[in-house]
Amino acid sequence: FSMTKILIVDDSVFSQQVLSNLLKTNLEDIEVFYANNGEEGIMKYLEIKPDYIFTDLLMPKLNGSDFIKLVKEYDKAAKIIVLSADVQKNIREEVEELGICLFFNKPFNQEKAVQVRDMIRSHNHD
Questions:
Q1: Is 25 left (phi over 0), alpha (psi -120 to 50) or beta?
Q2: Scanning 23, 56, 91, 95, which has the fewest C-beta atoms within 10 Å of its C-beta?
């Protein structure tokens, strides 16, 4: 039996905490890792090979969509959930074309956490 590893990539520590707390409340057996920007996100990704990645889009050094593209080069099947305060339709379509699992507008909340929980549970029982 193994823990589900989750990497949160967000330049806001507050957002990281909110997300982490909600995930831990709704899911057992998870291990959460953090990165403060896309560049750090890639390093952490290669180091821990997370099962799921949550990423913001607007970040310094390497933005969310470039981060997603890089992850997808390493692993086409990477499971990525986008959390963004940027709700422009074209932005959303652009990242959805990269092959993400879910797209949420910030702030993350209990209702969104339940959707994530259900998705992770269904993946884990495949």
A1: alpha
A2: 91
Beta bridge partners of residue 102, listed in sequence order = 81
What is the number of other CB atoms lying within 10 angstroms of the CB of residue 110? 9
Nearest to 33 by CA among 14, 59, 10: 10
91: Cα separation from own chain's centroid: 16
Answer left, alpha or beta for residue 29, where phi above 0 means left and psi between -120 and 50 means alpha. left
For the question of whether the overall pTM of this predicted structure is more than 0.85, the answer is yes
Report pLDDT digits (tens) over 82-115: 999 877 889 899 999 999 999 999 999 999 999 9
3-state secondary structure of 51: coil
